[in-house]
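name: query_chain
kind: protein
chains: 1
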Amino acid sequence: PICRETLEKLQTHVLTHDFPNQTEEIYFFKFLKPTVVGKLLMYLYLAEVELNKPMENTTAQKAYLRGTIQTCQNYFKENQSLYRYLKRKRNDRDSEYFLRKASVLAWEKKAFTSYTDPLFSTGYDTITATFIAYNSLVDRIQHELQGIERGGVPAYGMELIWTASKVDLVELIYALHAAEVCNNGQATIKQIATSIQHVFNITIRDYYRTYLEIQDRKNSRTKLLDTLKESLIERIEEMEKL
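structure:
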């Protein structure tokens, strides 16, 4: 994954080069490294949440997700001194938090990654990265909870806009119909098309004519589906490398 490769490159650079001054070192450990590590941690935590999430009923799912949010909030409370410091955008203790030197308080903290080599961490940078990861994770879980409360309807605070071509969308509509994955295979082309247009806030005037164009393609007749398949496989392989 890009974030891990970036982190490894940063680690190699830091271990083989000196920072020109303390200001640059503070910037690296306060902002740059935590951003990269935070993104990596967020995906790891998200994968763990999905793996352990109960599937039997929505009540169990909601309880589990709320428990995960509470775990994140407990971490914020345990480290509230640094959390408030960062939230208020203070810099008066930057040299204490974000310069590489022995810090008993920092190294007593938990939830560290393998990137806590004293030469590549101040201790507090990893806690900062965990803040970033947990904030993103809580955001995603809250959105998922809203969706569950609304009967599975996503509630992400913004509408979905179809940004591929209309031909691609028609390909998706006909694929869903052909696979009989909507309403146990009882949904018609028109019903699927109407629902899809509503979800993506788009209008398709003559999807049957567009379907004929898809039939007449010289090369692949399933360009979008091929792209979706390749993209999903790539994503799965990336997650397996984490």
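note: The longest helix spans residues 22-52.
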